[in-house]
């Protein structure tokens, strides 16, 4: 299966389950700052999508109630060494 086929298969599976309704951007420190352009873009362009930014600790210890099957979690880490980031996986 090539990359395009994989992407199409994943997109179809997501659509079959009702699509993505919320996006969670999770990071710490400078990595969290890097998420602002994505949040700005999604807030500006998406009409049916809730977008939230969380530190790794917030996401792990105060997990949003809306997190579910129709959620996309994007985790960013420059170094990958922060314990909170590792717990998000």
Helix content: 40-55%
- Residue stretches low in confidence (pLDDT < 50, at least 5 long) are none
CATH architecture: 3-Layer(aba) Sandwich
Overall 3D shape: globular
Work out the helix count.
Answer: 5
How would a textbook summarize the main sheet? Answer: 3 strands, parallel
| CATH superfamily heading | Glucose-6-phosphate isomerase like protein, domain 1
| Strand content bin | 15-25%
Q: At the third CATH level, what is the topology name?
A: Rossmann fold
CATH top level is Alpha Beta
Q: Would you count the extended β strands for me? A: 3
In the sheet with the most strands, the strands line up as: 2-1-3
- Oligomeric composition of the shown chains: single chain
Order of helices and strands: HEHHEHEH
- The pLDDT mean sits at 89
How far apart are the first and last residues' alpha carbons, in Å? 26 Å
CA radius of gyration is 14 Å
Structural class: alpha/beta
Number of domains: 1
GO molecular function: carbohydrate derivative binding; hydrolase activity; isomerase activity
Keywords: Hydrolase, Isomerase
Protein name: Phosphosugar isomerase
GO biological process, one term: carbohydrate derivative metabolic process
Q: How would you portray this structure in words?
A:
The structure is a single chain. The protein is an alpha/beta fold. The protein has a single domain (18-88), classed as Glucose-6-phosphate isomerase like protein, domain 1 (Rossmann fold, 3-Layer(aba) Sandwich), CATH 3.40.50. The protein is built from 5 helices and 3 strands. It has a 3-stranded parallel β-sheet with strand order 2-1-3. The longest helix has 14 residues, at 3-16. The radius of gyration is 14 Å and the shape is globular. The model has no long low-confidence stretch (mean pLDDT 89).
């Amino acid at each position: 299966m090539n990359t395009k086929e994989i992407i199409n298969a994943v997109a179809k599976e997501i659509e079959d389950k009702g699509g993505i309704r919320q996006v969670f951007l999770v990071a710490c420190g400078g990595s969290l700052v890097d998420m602002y352009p994505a949040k700005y873009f999604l807030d500006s362009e998406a009409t049916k999508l809730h977008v939230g930014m969380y530190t790794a600790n917030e996401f792990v210890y105060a997990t949003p109630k809306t997190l579910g099957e129709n959620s996309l979690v994007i985790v960013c880490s420059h170094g990958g060494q922060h314990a909170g980031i590792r717990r998000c996986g």
